[in-house]
Amino acid sequence: MKIGIFGTGMVGRALADKLTQLGHDVVIGTRDVAATLARTEPDGMGNPPFSVWQNENAAVKLATHAGAAAHGEMLINAANGAGSLAMLQSVEEANLNGKILIDIANPLDFSQGMPPSLFIANNDSLGEQIQRALPDVKVVKTLNTMNAYLMVDPSQLADGDHTIFLSGNETGAKAQVTELLRSFGWQDIIDLGDITTSRGSEMLLPLWARLWGALGTPMFSFKVVR
Fold first, then answer.
1. In which element (H, E) is residue 51 found?
2. Mean pLDDT, to the nearest integer, of 126-148?
3. What confidence score (pLDDT) does residue 44 get?
4. 151, 184, 148: which is closest to 22 by C-alpha?
5. Nearest-CA neighbor of 195 among 129, 138, 128?
6. What's the alpha-carbon Rg for the chain, to the nearest Å?
7. Are the C-beta atoms of 19 and 13 separated by less than 8 Å?
8. DSSP label at residue 49
9. Would the pTM of this model clear 0.90, i.e. be above it?
10. Rounded distance, CA 8 to CA 6, Å?
């Protein structure tokens, strides 16, 4: 499948690498291709510049956000939550409409430092805002409650025995995303319901951030025991 990913950070890279290994044709989108390739310093998380990563992952192509959207039969939003809506609205709707958009972004507010708060909560969610802004896109919220390494390889923790959530209005879109998640190794997948239920998974992030602080590692996940 042709997949377009928005976001060149750790999450976008981890997904691109995994999807390429699974045989998908992946293009990562960025706002400014030349600027992205020109960076020589590690990012804020200490990851190497994109050009270094791409040299080791030559099968993954880099394009503008518009180019990634045009390429993808399925799209993934792995961009910063604060800029996600504006970024998606900057893409020509013809390259988005009718497609599944897996939304991984979280509405994290780092303005007061760590741990972050949420700039959307309780009676709305980033997933819902994206769906309202792009009514002809099939938004599915998932993969937003664990770190990038576990997203693409849940077996790294407890032999994969932990839970992932998804939310979305389109039953068929959720079925396709579920199939993709199973190809990553996910076993326990809970469909929370329509896109309004993404409020719940997004509001897990303040707890997730504090667990990271308490445990000293991001290599943990949630398990719904039932």
1. helix 50-56
2. 98
3. 72
4. 184
5. 128
6. 16
7. no
8. P
9. yes
10. 7
Contact 55, 31 (CB under 8 A): no
Which residues face 75 on adjacent strands? 4, 101
pLDDT at 77 over 90: yes
Q: Where are the domains of the chain?
A: 2-215
Region of poorest pLDDT, from 52-56, 179-183, 192-196: 52-56
The alpha carbon of residue 174 and the mean position of all alpha carbons in its chain are separated, in whole angstroms, by: 15
Residue 215 exposed, middle or buried by CB count within 10 Å (0-12, 13-18, 19+): exposed
- How much is the pLDDT for 47? 83
Q: Mean of the per-residue pLDDT values for the chain?
A: 95
Superfamily of structural domain 2-215: NAD(P)-binding Rossmann-like Domain (3.40.50.720)
Question: In the predicted model, is pLDDT for residue 120 greater than 80?
Answer: yes
Taking residue 14's Cβ as centre, other Cβ atoms within 10 Å add up to 18
Contact 27, 71 (CB under 8 A): yes
